[in-house]
Amino acid sequence: MVNLKMKTIDEFQDYQERIDSICGRTEVSQACMAMLKECRRELCVNFPVKMDDGSVRVFTGYRVQHNDTRGPFKGGIRFHPDVNLNEVKTLAALMTLKAAVVNIPYGGAKGAVVCDPKTLSIHELERMTRRYASEMSNLIGPERDIPAPDVGTNPQIMAWIMDTFSMNKGYSVLGVVTGKPIDVGGSLGRFEATGRGCMICTLLAAKHYGIAIPGATVAVQGFGNVGGNLARMLAQKGCKVIAVSDVMGGICNPEGLDIDALLQHSQQTGSVINFKDNNSITNDELLAMECDILAPAALENTIHEDNADTVKARLIIEGANGPITPEADEILNDKGILIVPDILANSGGVVVSYFEWVQGLQSFFWTESQVNQQLELVMSNAFTEVIKLSIEHKITMREAAYILAMKRLDSALRLRGIYP
Ligand code: GLU
Q1: Which of 109, 129, 368, 390 could form a disulfide with 188 if both were Cys (CB 3.0 to 4.6 A apart)?
Q2: Which residues contact 150 (CB under 8 A, 6 or more apart)?
Q3: Span 64-112, pLDDT tens digits
Q4: Location of each CATH 3.40.50.10860 domain in the chain
């Protein structure tokens, strides 16, 4: 649960209510609806790790497997100090829907460790990751559940998980995680894939909305893997990225920021703030910027009922998972803002994860342009299906994406049946 300005947000309850309301408007079976509203398996572990000063610290970790009707469980691992079970359950459920929207043969899962990785030494981070991987070893595996990076985790952490799992098996298991470094079975293009997928959706949505891309003004909240790559790629397409922010704060320049130099600055200093002589802004000011495109690409619930009304963008691309609360969603829809929902907009990461898994299982690796071409194909097919459904039924893109995903899940469930 996230405590936001004294109002407690129960994300999983919000998710369940959204499923209820969408099921009410489509012919998804009662069985499918009941299954989607709960998580199949939830594991919570408290495990010890030796710290550099000789003390032992106990960390709490989770792995939630939401649904595997369409294929093995799939989803990232988050290292964050505020992460909790409810959040992991919601993110796991979103993964099920995400895989179904883009029609890749996966179910949904999510994992997390409650920690601030920035405060751990590299050795502590490695020991903690390896112990967490061991605690998860009965749940994960290439045919079972395949983790990947998420907020606070990266390719090096995936390499440690792959190594820990492989050491216990006695042979190298490439398919147990995705988002690995290239030298240990990662896929070319995976690192940038979520940002690239967001960029593809932005171009398609802008075309649909009549926003000319060269010269379009963009504000990006979050300058990590997703926001950073999205800003870079949109700048390359000729957009004017006028504002970006991270946890420390934001900066803006109405003439457009130099994104390549900003990426370097943020890598060197750990934040976008204090970049050259640009104006500083707060995260809330960024969300309220006068711009064509807004990409919330940080954490959940950043646009809520108290600030939704200030949003002036024409188009929102949800780079993060769940950045808009249901109340804010309604306000933004009433304002006529087109929202490309998370389960479509940020699905590029899991799509290329799927390519990485396929490449690892076959020990046959693709070129970067093959990966990018296939990603573009999968994303534009999904985008076209969602927008078509949304126009036909006069519903939002979020409702259309949920309906498309739920119909695919329902069909798979009907064909498989309920065991026994
Ligand atoms: N963590 C990413 C997401 O939320 C990627 C998951 C994956 O590649 O499995 O979509």
Answers
A1: 368
A2: 75, 76, 77, 78, 91, 110, 112
A3: 999 999 999 999 999 999 999 999 999 999 999 999 999 999 999 999 9
A4: 39-171
Pocket of ligand 1 contains residue 148 by CB under 6 Å = yes
Q: Report residue 190: phi and psi, to 5°.
A: -70, -40
Q: Count CB neighbours of 168 within 10 A.
A: 11
Q: Where in the chain is the domain with CATH 3.40.50.720?
A: 193-345
pLDDT tens figures, 142-198: 999 999 999 999 999 999 999 999 999 999 999 999 999 999 999 999 999 999 999
The architecture CATH gives domain 39-171: 3-Layer(aba) Sandwich (3.40)
User: Which residues, 6 or more positions from 319, have their beta carbon under 8 angstroms from its beta carbon?
Assistant: 194, 195, 198, 220, 222, 226, 227, 230, 295, 296, 297, 342, 345, 346
Atom of ligand 1 nearest to the CA of 77: 1
Nearest by Cα to 260 from 228, 302, 224: 228
Span 23-63, pLDDT tens digits? 888 889 999 999 999 999 999 999 999 999 999 999 999 99
Question: Do residues 26 and 411 lie in contact, with contact meaning Cβ atoms separated by under 8 Å?
Answer: no
Taking the CA of residue 347 as reference, the ligand 1 atom at the shortest distance is: 10
**Cα 150 to ligand 1 centroid, rounded to whole Å:** 6
Catalytic positions, please?
110
Q: Is the pTM of this model over 0.90?
A: yes
Question: Taking a C-beta distance cutoff of 8 angstroms, is the pair 296, 222 a contact?
Answer: yes
Q: Is the CB of 76 under 6 A from ligand 1?
A: yes
Residue 238 is encoded by which pair of tokens?
């000729």
Token pair for residue 125? 């981070």
